[in-house]
Amino acid sequence: MKRRAALAVIASGISFAAKGRAEAAPDDALARLKQSGVMRIGVKSDLPAIAYVDTTQPGDLQGFEIDLARGVAKRILGDPDRARLVGVTSENRIPKLLSGEIDLILATMTITPERLAQIDFSNVYYKAGQTLLVNPASKIRSYRDLAGHTVCTAQASTSAATLARVAPAARVVLRPTYGMCYDVLRDGGVDAMSTDDVILLGFAFKDPKFTMLDERFTFEPYGIGLRKNSASLKSAVNDAFKSIRRDGDYDSSYQRWFRQPLPRGYGYWLDMDPALAAKKFADQSR
Question: Same domain for 121 and 246?
Answer without folding.
Answer: yes
